[in-house]
Design goal:
Blueprint (H helix, E strand, L loop, with lengths): L11 H16 L12 E6 L5 H12 L3 E5 L13 H11 L2 E6 L4 H8 L4 E6 L5 H15 L6 E5 L6 H11 L5 E5 L8 H9 L3 E5 L2 H4 L5 E4 L10 H7 L7 H4 L7 E3 L20 H20 L1
Parallel strand pairs: 1-2, 1-3, 3-4, 5-6, 5-8, 6-7, 8-9
Helix pairs in contact: 1-11, 2-11, 3-4, 5-6, 5-11
This protein binds N-carbamoyl-L-aspartate.
N-carbamoyl-L-aspartate binds next to helix 2 and helix 6.
Length: about 300
Amino acid sequence: MKHLIDAKELSPEYVERLIASAEDIISAPGSYSDRCRGRILATLFYEPSTRTRLSFESAMLGLGGQTLGFSSADSSSASKGESVADTIRMVSCYADICAMRHPKEGSALVASMHSGIPVINAGDGGHQHPTQTLTDLMTIHSVKKKLDGLSVGLCGDLRFGRTVHSLIHALSKHKNNSFILVSPDELKIPDYLREEMIKGGVRFTETEDLKQSIKEMDVIYMTRVQKERFFNEEDYVRLKDSYILNRQKLSQAKKDLAVMHPLPRVNEISTEVDDDPRSVYFDQARYGRFVRMALILDLLS
Ligand code: NCD
C-alpha cells in the first residue's frame, strides 16, 4: 500500500515523474476524465482548508471519481472522542483513498498504520504538508525550468509553517540548492530540522533581515504567521506583521525572482505585488489540482 506522509519520501525522480504526469494531464485533460471511474476519495479535514481540500476534490472529480468527507472535526465523530485509528478503519470501508488534515503532528502517519487504503497527509499540525510541496515544486519547475542550483529564501513563520518544513526536505534532495531562512528569532525553524540540515550537509543561513537578503534569492517563499499554533494572542499580534513584501522591497530583488506563498495570505504580501510578473502564488494554487490528480493516479496504481 502506497501513502504520502512525509516530504522526505519525495525523491527527485518521483517528483519529476509526478510533474511530467501533471503536465500531461494539463495538456490532455479529456484522456484522464475516466481514469478513476468508480473510485472514491475521502477528504478527512479536522482543520480549516480552502485550496487543499477543494483541489483534492476537484482532482478526483476531474478523474471521473467521486468524493465524500468532512471539513471540520465538529462534524465528525472526533467530537465524540473517536481516535484517528478507528476513524480510518471505518473510512477504509467507504473509500479507495483518503486525504487527511489534522491539527496533531504525526496523525497522518498513525492513520496510515491502521488504514486499508492509501493515506495522503494534507497537513499534520506544524509538521508537514507534502502535497503543498508538490505544487510548490511544480511551480518552481515551471518558472525556473529546474529544481537545483537555486538560492531559496523562506520568510515568516518557519517554526510552525509546515509547508516550509516539507519544502526544505524536498528541495534538499536536489543538487546545489541553498536556503536563506528569514524570520524573527522566535519563529526560526525547529531545532530538529536545523540538526537534520546540518547533518545532511545542507547549505543555509539564518537572518532577520529581509531587505538585505532578498537580493541573493532566486525564489522567495513568504508564509503566514500560523495563528492557530500560538499559545497566546499577544505573541501572535506582536509577530504577525514581521515581514510584509511590497513593491519597494521587491525593487531590490533579482529580475527573475519567483515570489511564492502557499496561501492563504494575510498581510505578508502586499496586494500591489500581485501584478508583478514575478508573482506566482496563484499559479501554485492552480497547479495544485493537477499535481494532486497525478498523485491520486500514482497511489491508486
Ligand atoms: C497552508 C497550510 O495549511 O499549511 N495552506 C495551504 O494548504 N495552502 C499554509 C497556511 O495555512 O498558512
